[in-house]
Amino acid sequence: MTKPSTEVLIIGAGLSGLAVATFLKHKQPDISLLVLEQNDHPGGAIHSHLEEGYLAEGGAHGFLDNCLESRVLVHEAGLADEVEKAPLSDFARYICLNGKLQCIPQQPGKILRAPLIPMSAKLRVLADLFKKPLPDEPSIAQWVEHRFGKTLLPFADAVFTGTYAGDIKRLKIEAVMPGLCALEKQHGSVLKGLLKKRRLAGKNKKTGLPAMTSFNAGMERLPQAMASGLALNREIMYRTAARSIEQTEHGWLVRTGQLELNCHHLVLALPVNSCLPMLGEQEAFAAPPPPLPSIPEAHIATVALGFTQSAEIPHGFGYLAPESEQRFTLGALFSSQMFPGRAPSGHVLLEALVGGRRHPERLELSDEELINKVYQDLKNLIHLPEAPVFSRVLRPEAGIPQLEAGYTSLLNWRKTLHENNQNLHLCGFGWQGIGINDMHKEAWKMAKRILIGLQNEENEEVENVYF
Ligand SMILES: Cc1cc2nc3c(=O)[nH]c(=O)nc-3n(C[C@H](O)[C@H](O)[C@H](O)COP(=O)(O)OP(=O)(O)OC[C@H]3O[C@@H](n4cnc5c(N)ncnc54)[C@H](O)[C@@H]3O)c2cc1C
């Protein structure tokens, strides 16, 4: 067994771990760090699939360009020239209602003004001004119904199907949208809070709509590019799974199959359910055991279908179907409209999503059955006169963490853990959100925490020398 030592050890080379490493190198190029990854490639939940000229995504399809941390990472990864953008202002989104695709405006205010919602329901939204916050930990469905009325439930359902593949009866509003809950508590009403916030932001400040962002060669380019810089300096080790961690006098000892690695700062950049077991084995922590042993996950499959241009795909990003519509497919992305070049010339690509928190049993079906059922479902919504000329089912291993009962207490537990262990840093899939921008924001917070920690340690050393 060898015992090398490094200032910062990061477990996990998904976007979170790579982002922490990239931020640290950017701020302190001579920092000594090492990333451990159990797979033979970086990226974790990100997986782009190129076949017969169709480029599909097994994981994330993109991220909005309204997050500074993500923009910095794209720049640091040297990918500015490979970026592809689909501005929200140019592309419509659809919701499946009463068996038809209905175009929905891109801004919540405009959704409320749209003819899609009856006048009585529009007036009901105003009841929010007088509603007291619900006690306990309301689900999104309870919260939306209480504040804005039942009619908005399918819209909320579509939003959280699109982001979490989740169930709004189980996802908790406080966990998923803490900002809105804070407005509700502070101002007694979400609408009042939003209006006040807007006034404070300044009437003349036009923020505009963000753009969905990806890369010419797919989302996989981002982790690949971040990892290649680290690989050049031998700062990343593949096929190396961390098995256990142990607190030492000066930091942490990480054991893999063959190695024992010492570090001052340890980053667990892992999905919540990979992180908790590693911490559960730890008895010497200055924190109580985690309040939950694990959190639920939603699994989905992407069914990529290629058609000739006889397919009449509506102009837009895609559509989502709320559960009340009882459809097989959760929704579909009109991928080659968002990002031209995702299908061979004269063809189009649709990527349909199946499964999710409510229908894990659908993932038991064979590829052939999935393709068939998705095609039949889509045919009822979109004019598809010819059968697909290309089909592929992508079944990502990663599940999407569900922020359900007990999640807020888990976050509070992490806060205590961080307060009591200044050189331990937890971030990654499901810690404080699930989207790529959430991951990058958390990664920057962890990098900042490490840099401040290292600075303080250095100052202590200086003090020791002089006094
Ligand atoms: C199907 C799907 C669709 C999605 N769509 C979108 C989207 O459109 N937009 C969006 O913003 N977000 C989306 N997301 C979320 C986004 O993909 C995640 O936020 C992000 O990829 C999480 O990155 P991570 O590094 O935190 O975790 P991961 O990607 O899970 O990376 C963790 C890494 O740690 C490694 N690892 C685990 N245990 C160990 C160990 N013991 N030792 C060493 N290495 C270990 C794993 O192999 C993995 O590489 C989607 C996610 C999924 C699953």
Descriptive notes:
The protein has 467 residues and is α+β, with helices and mostly antiparallel strands. It folds into 3 domains: 182 residues, FAD/NAD(P)-binding domain; 95 residues, protoporphyrinogen ix oxidase, domain 3, CATH 1.10.3110.10; 96 residues, Polyamine Oxidase, Chain A, domain 2 (Alpha-Beta Complex). It has 15 helices and 21 strands. The strands form 5 sheets. Strands 1, 2, 10, 11, 12, 13 and 21 form a 7-stranded mixed β-sheet that branches. A 7-stranded mixed β-sheet has the order 8-7-16-17-18-15-19.
**How many separate helices?**
15
| DSSP helix fraction | 25-40%
**Multimer state:** single chain
Shape-level CATH architecture of the largest domain: 3-Layer(bba) Sandwich
Distance between the termini: 38 Å
What would CATH call the homologous superfamily of the largest domain? Answer: FAD/NAD(P)-binding domain
Low-confidence stretches: 461-467
CATH fold field value of the largest domain: FAD/NAD(P)-binding domain
Globular, elongated, flat, extended or rod-shaped: what is the shape?
Answer: globular
Question: What is the domain tally?
Answer: 3
| Biggest sheet layout | 7 strands, mixed
Q: Which ligands, by name, code or SMILES, are bound?
A: flavin-adenine dinucleotide
Strand residue percentage: 15-25%
Mean pLDDT value: 91
Assign the structural class, choosing from mainly alpha, mainly beta, alpha/beta, alpha+beta, or little secondary structure.
alpha+beta
Q: What Rg is obtained from the alpha carbons, in whole angstroms?
A: 23 Å
CATH class of the largest domain: Alpha Beta
- The count of β-strands is 21
